[in-house]
Design a protein that fits this description.
By secondary structure, the chain is of the alpha+beta class. It has one domain: Alpha-Beta Plaits, CATH 3.30.70.120. 19% of the residues lie in helices and 27% in strands. It has 2 helices and 4 strands; from the N terminus they run βαββαβ. The chain has a 4-stranded antiparallel β-sheet with strand order 2-3-1-4, with helices on one face. The longest helix is centred in the last third of the chain and has 12 residues. The model has no long low-confidence stretch (mean pLDDT 88).
């Protein structure tokens, strides 16, 4: 199993979600956040009381997936989140070492079925 983390523009979340659903990938977790990366534009972005550094709004999507689904999910996110401009986001993929479904105690890749 793998954990896919995608940081995208918040305005594109609905497009990405619809594209993932249409491709048969159902289950995602979404976080609202702020980031200060190479893409931050000091002419458009500014600090806040919570985060005083220059920052941009960002939406983080997390998807736990079977090994065979990783590449199609990445391609779907990339195609639906790309505007062709700096700041479109980034995708990370990490291994999942252990997984347990709290409801019934099932473990491993079986919890994704």
């Amino acid at each position: 199993m793998k954990l896919i983390k995608a940081y995208i523009r918040p305005i594109l979340l609905e497009d990405v979600y619809k594209s993932l659903r249409a491709a048969g990938h159902c289950c995602i977790t979404v976080f609202k956040g702020e980031g200060a990366g190479q893409y931050s534009d000091p002419d458009k972005e500014h600090g806040s009381l919570e985060f005083p550094a220059m920052h941009s709004k960002v939406t983080k999507i997390e998807i736990a997936a079977q090994e065979t689904s990783v590449q199609p999910i990445i391609e779907t996110i990339q195609q639906s989140a790309s505007t062709g401009s700096s700041g479109d986001g980034i995708i990370f993929v990490s291994p999942i070492e252990y997984a347990l479904r709290i409801r019934d105690g099932k473990e491993g890749a079986e919890i994704l079925l």
